[in-house]
Amino acid sequence: MKLTVIGCAGSFPGPDSPCSAYLVQAEDYTLLLDFGSGSLGALQRHIDPYRIDAIILTHLHADHIMDACPYVVMRRYAPGGPLPQIPLYGPTGTETRLATAYGGAGETGCPSLSDVYRFHTLTPGQLDIGPFHVTVDEVAHPVQTFGVRLEHGGRSLTYSSDTGTCEPLRRLANHCDVFLCEASYLEGRPNPPGVHLTGREAGETATKAGAGRLLLTHLVRRWGDPERTLAEATAAYAGPVELVESGAVYHI
Ligand SMILES: [Zn+2]
Ligand SMILES: [Zn+2]
After folding, report:
1. Ligand 2 centroid vs 56 CA: distance in angstroms?
2. pTM of this prediction?
3. Largest CB tally within 10 Å, which of 46, 74, 122, 227?
4. What separation in Å is there between the alpha carbon of 141 and the centre of ligand 2?
């Protein structure tokens, strides 16, 4: 598997990164995990955007879904004619949310986005998407949110999405080769429970799960301190750990 970090900025885009979006590729198949603000632009540095085969939206917060709207324009109005539907997996309510964000019916006479997306509602469990064996489970966040584990060719990648500490996250990360885990918060602040992880909590989860490598993402750099986040995680996890950057590529 090849992981390309398109966007890793937490909660809002930063000067150096769009919001959450990750390309995962295997066997010439491309899966996009989340489609956050600004990511459709940065994505084009790495891939022809028409080559995405499927999309998973882990939850319906704006920083994980918004560029699914301009992508409608890109596919529906392509000069060579509309492109075929692309599978899009998301939580309950995804189609309504995206259609509302896009602007609804009227301007095109198209009552929904179903000409562009073939919507699938995620439920906890396992499914196959292209060559990937996928496990999803609900993690701890104020809205329905799915952590994702991808397996291919005996290798595994777990993506936390946005979450507080929870047992489903540890299970998803169990002995994964790479754990792409959010670390939005800093220790020592009045962080509300069940929303995001600190670097320490990400490191502790990686340790409990026996993850092979920890990649920290979704840092809110304007409000935080990346070096402190990295130090917190390093103190709690003995394996290799780093902060991801937009454009980083990992071979798993
Ligand atoms: Zn987020
Ligand atoms: Zn969120």
Report:
1. 14
2. 0.96
3. 122
4. 7
